[in-house]
Amino acid sequence: MSETLELTWEEIKNFPAGSYRLIDIRSAFDTAYGMIPGAVNIPREKLEETWEELPADRKMILYCTRGIFSKECAGELRENGGEQFYSLAGGYHGWLVTEMNAEEEKAGGINGENAPSTAVKSAGKKEEPDACQKDDKEVADDSEHGQRGERKSNGRSQKALDVEKSIRKRFHKELFSRFAKAIREYELVRENDKIAVCISGGKDSMLMAKLFQELQRHHKFPFELVFLCMDPGYSELNRKVIENNARLLEVPITFFESSIFEAVYDIEKSPCYLCARMRRGYLYSKAKELGCNKIALGHHYDDVIETILMGMLYGGQVQTMMPKLHSTNFEGMELIRPLYLIREDDIKHWRDYNGLQFIQCACRFTDSCTTCRPDGTGYSKRQEVKQLIAEMKKTNPFVESNIFKSVENVNLNTVIAYKEQGVRHHFLDEYDRNDMCRGAEENPGSQSG
């Protein structure tokens, strides 16, 4: 092997334009969470079959999540004669770290007035809307987005200003209007609520945070926000990504720690379900401690329809992910889902338009790059259902809205059995009595003397 197998991002940036190609070998599902700009997606199994079709006169630089499997793949291709293949050291995460470090240097680091506090920040301050209106006027004529990490003279992040502007203008219909509609239609926010906006670090929860900030600037009644992030055992990188995005987007996050990842790591049966349940319990508890009466989670429209199908196909039941719920274990607490009517593709478009990078699932099952495996390790039932819906949509463009509407149009007269408040009801329970009632209605004088 004449040259080194791994290349750093700093080395790649110095290569002449057109002398290399970045290839993301992760699955299409994983790349949907974010890719290096300019990269193309060729899943590993496909690359191993078609690599000879790629140009031999340019460097083909592979990457996965952490560079583990891309290095392995590049090595195998080299052994088979593909001398043009390399691997990006550290993978997607390595690139992200390099970019974040560059942003911090450009912004002068996180210090002084330029950094949003990570302590609990009370919402609804009168000076916030005025400050935002001033910033909008300053950037109204901007035709290009500011660079990540760049700050205006008043200390506000240019990236935050651009993101806020995109929500008001470019994505108003797809994002803010649907967000406001869900809040109005399902009565998710009421006067004097104190809402814990739960931040996982992904695209959905960070968008939800920005939408809540926008809503608060135009609210017709007072309510408070706490941006709450539980660290269940994040790697140093994932914690840094969340903190960096919070700084760029000016979301004042309150962090608290738990050891959930350690608790579920050795669980073989349904670790993801157990993890989700435990996380919700910790979030409820901390939110209540901070004086909140609601927690907001970032589940969107696609999560809802996938949950409906998963319940039918894998659980043998008809149910949905509700837009709001009363907590059964924390008295006085509610769970709300304000992204209920927002499509995931629109969230991705917003993310990519603004050049944002977020973490995927940060648990130890996926954090070690196992999602890159061509044998499907880490492949979930939700991913299967997501692909199933995509296939059905090819022949029926209305399939997604029909799935969503199916739980709004349930006719109990055509259901064999159902549960209400934990009590099972069967159609035979009332079958004969209903027939007698119908007979009486049809022959009202039959029982008269």
Question: How would you describe this structure in keywords?
Answer:
five-stranded parallel β-sheet; 449 residues; alpha/beta; single chain; six-stranded mixed β-sheet
Describe this structure in words.
It is a single chain. The protein has 449 residues and is α/β, with parallel strands linked by helices. Helix content is 44%, strand content 12%. It contains 17 helices and 13 strands. A 6-stranded mixed sheet has the order 8-7-6-9-11-10, sandwiched between helices. A 5-stranded parallel sheet has the order 1-5-4-2-3. A two-stranded antiparallel ribbon has the order 12-13. Helix 9 (203-217) links the parallel strand 6 (194-198) and strand 7 (224-231). The longest helix is centred in the middle third of the chain and has 19 residues, at 271-289. The N and C termini lie far apart (106 Å).
Could you provide a short overview of the structure?
The chain has 449 residues and is of the alpha/beta class. 44% of the residues lie in helices and 12% in strands.
